[in-house]
Amino acid sequence: MIEDLIKYITTNIKHRFTRSFLTILSILIGIMAIFVLISFGEGLRNYMEVMGEEMGTDKLMVMPKGMELPGSGGVYLTKDDLDFIKKQRGVSEATAMILKQSEVRIDKRKLGKWVFIAGMPTDPSERRFVEEAFAGYGIFKGRALKKGDKNKAVLGYNYMVADKVFSKPLNLGDNIFINGKSFDIVGFYEEIGNPQDDSNVYLTNDAMKELFDVGDEYGYIYIRADKGVVPTELADKLKEKLRNKKGQKEGQEDFYIMSFEQLMETFSTVLLVLNSILVIIAGISVLVAAVNIMNTMYTAVLERTKEIGIMKAIGAKNSTILFMFFFESGMLGLIGGGIGMLLGYGLAKLGAVIIAFTGYSFLKPYFPWWLIVGCLVFSFMVGAASGFFPARAASRLKPVDALRYE
Amino acid sequence: MLKDYSRFAIDGIKNRKLRSWLTMIGIIIGITAVVSLIGIGQGLKVAISSQFGDIGTDKLTVMASGGMGPPGTGVVNPLTKDNVKKIGDVNDVKVAAGRLARSIKIEYNDNVKFGMAASIAEGNGRKLIESALNLEAEKGRLLRDGDTKKIVLGSNLGSENAGFEKQIYVGSKVLVQDERFEVVGILKKTGSFAVDSLVFIQEDDLRKMLGISDDEYDIIVAQVHPNADIKAVQENIEKVMRKERGVKKGEEDFTVQTPQAILAQVNSTLFAVQLFVYIIAVISIVVGGIGIMNTMFTSVLERTKEIGIMKSIGAKNSTIFTLFFIESGMIGSVGGIIGAVMGVSIAKGLAFIGSMLLGSELIRADISIWLVIGSVVGSFLLGSIFGIIPAIRASRLNPVEALRHTK
């Protein structure tokens, strides 16, 4: 039965080749677009999850309020705040980071590039803690900063690559100049995958204080929660304690405190909402394709009126005719979806190469099995749903009228 | 002649009502989506542009270059008082003034907020800054020479829902960075969100409060004489500044920008985002076009016999082509007109709902007559283009075989 049906459908699709081809083409385009967009959205979600694991879900971060860019105004976190946080229950360890924007030169007299300069603690365990907070990236080449490294710097990955930050790649032992002061390069970090973080310059906290003439004004404080303490709950508790210590009222804190989990959630929610908007817009084309399928099926019913009449005359039930056309339009959708997905796969891979070229190598498409199955089921459903009315019209034809149809 | 062609097309469309409608619905959906998205996108763009419209076309801004972020962030080599004076001396510069813009903490009625403070210069520079930012007092007055511990607030801060649970009035005392200031004026709305949320403060007060050195500025604003060539003045200022700061051409550690240049920068980023959305939206129009092509192929097939008759009584290939070409163009343009009308209403409707929900005037649809005309003409072209191949096929039919054709 099913075999006959499939044979019947393939004959019909072949018979009206141009029409079937155009109908399939129209659904293919939309499914391709949706497939590409969702695969990038999933890739992003995946990246976030992996990064969250590497950063560790036991961490919290404190940031000053005001301008959301560190170092731009009168609001800072202080050494006092750091010491206070270290003493709190549930806090396993805490460390702070000074962050400034500055110009880095490789030739003292030539203009350089504006990047973020980050101060690193020199105590090895504290330093490792900050590195972990930066998604667990370790030293790629050379060594990390240690106590007394006043004139030493560790650079982000992009400095090793020509034309990323500077036209010529830098090496261990080369010099860079910040604010006219020279620093030896002693190490490079692994690639993080976004152009900002990979262009960071790391100095010791002491060197930062001297270079930028700042005291203990921190841009960030990182906290690790004790084992068994829920970071989100700790965030609330610390918020209250720090607020009281600073004599601020609820809702008027001059700082944010968030667990990394919350931070990642906020960030990924925004991106995923944007992604869904694009998917919805792409979905409009599937809607148009559905109308096209409906149109094709109505035409098919019209053309095959006599055929339907004959089938009914020799005993075909209404439900058989309904199912036949219903299935045929579903097949149109399914074929379009299948081809669309294959093309979408290629397009997503190509897109990833182009995106990686611009420095955002973290943005990769990801193809979970449910996306592939989902796309196939969805395209079949779209086809079948758009074929419903034509199929019903076909099934309700009166055999006598249909036979007489010219 | 053309009348006959049109009648043929209209009859063709009418006789196949269901199919024509479905084909048109495809185009309608596509055009509706594109018109409404472009309308809303344009509206956003206009709204964002208006945020930059506060600078005036006769003014130049000079900034020390930094990375991203607000002015003054991490600038190693800030602008100086001397720079202001030298720029003021450049030919055709009427007056130049230095500004500071820093983030600060504001407290009123035990509520704390964080925002930006902008300095107002003493003397001649005051007028320039006021006109550059379009500052006018709604209530009270602007700052004067000799004021100390007085501030003027942007309209957002002086409004009922500024977030202090109590409205700030002229005469209210406000804590800025924990120091008491008297509010002497509340500004008229300028339309720029950034300016409307600023705290204006005497330059000396701001320096003392944040410990900024006497010599440092974040931004220099220069007003150019009305008839001067602004580009030439820009180049002259760049020359003077290069000399002042001892840098070579091409290695400037500062930027001199016309308001248009700043706007162009923002627009280009916005444009990239818009383009991406439009491309995705246009896919649905293409799919609609494929629908037209399909319908036209079917229509040629159905009328094969008809075509054979026309040809046998002397219709030229070109006549047959034109007949089908006009029919598909008509499907496209009727779909386009309906789509444009629906797109306009949806864009207006969404913008209305959006502005109600978010209480912001920023969300509105901006639909130019060209968008409407363009979408109708575009859909006519779309219909015609996708109708070309079916029309060619119709025109090339062999009359003898066409006459013999049965369904």
List strands and helices in order, with pairings.
The complex is a heterodimer of chains A (406) and B (407).
Chain A: H1 2-15, H2 17-55, E1 59-64, E2 77-78, H3 79-87, E3 91-97, E4 99-105, E5 113-120, H4 124-133, E6 139-142, E7 152-155, E8 175-178, E9 181-189, E10 201-204, H5 205-212, E11 217-218, E12 220-225, H6 231-245, E13 255-259, H7 260-303, H8 305-313, H9 318-357, H10 369-395, H11 399-404
Parallel strand pairs in A: 5-10, 7-9
Antiparallel strand pairs in A: 1-12, 1-13, 2-11, 3-12, 4-5, 4-8, 6-9, 7-10, 8-9
Chain B: H1 2-15, H2 17-52, E1 59-64, E2 79-80, H3 81-89, E3 93-99, E4 101-108, E5 111-120, H4 124-132, E6 137-140, E7 150-153, E8 173-176, E9 179-187, H5 193-196, E10 199-202, H6 203-210, E11 216-217, E12 219-224, H7 230-245, E13 254-257, H8 259-302, H9 304-312, H10 317-358, H11 369-395, H12 399-404
Parallel strand pairs in B: 5-10, 7-9
Antiparallel strand pairs in B: 1-12, 1-13, 2-11, 3-12, 4-5, 4-8, 6-9, 7-10, 8-9
Helix pairs in contact in B: 1-10, 2-8, 2-10, 2-11, 8-10, 8-11, 10-11
Question: Short summary of the structure?
Answer:
The complex is a heterodimer of chains A (406) and B (407). Chain A is of the alpha+beta class and 406 residues long.
Strand order of the largest sheet of chain A: 4-5-10-7-9-8
The tally of strands of chain B reads: 13
Largest interface (CB < 8 Å) = A-B, 52 and 55 residues
Q: How many discrete structural domains of chain A?
A: 2
Count of individual beta strands of chain A: 13
Quaternary: heterodimer
**First-residue to last-residue Cα separation of chain B:** 30 Å
C-alpha-based Rg of chain B, rounded: 32 Å
Helicity range of chain B: 55-70%
Number of helices of chain A: 11
Q: Mind explaining what this structure looks like?
A:
The complex is a heterodimer of chains A (406) and B (407). Chain A has 406 residues and is of the alpha+beta class. Chain A contains 11 helices and 13 strands. In chain A, the strands form 3 sheets. Chain A has a 6-stranded mixed barrel with strand order 4-5-10-7-9-8. In chain A, strands 3-12-1-13 form a 4-stranded antiparallel sheet, sandwiched between helices. A two-stranded antiparallel ribbon of chain A has the order 2-11. Chain A is elongated, with a radius of gyration of 31 Å. Chain B is an alpha+beta fold and 407 residues long. Chain B folds into 2 domains: 2-51 and 264-404, no CATH class; 59-258, no CATH class. Chain B contains 12 helices and 13 strands. In chain B, the strands form 3 sheets. A 6-stranded mixed β-barrel of chain B has the order 4-5-10-7-9-8. Chain B is elongated, with a radius of gyration of 32 Å. In chain B, 43% of the residues are buried. The chains are: A alpha+beta (406), B alpha+beta (407). The interface between A and B is large, with 52 and 55 residues.
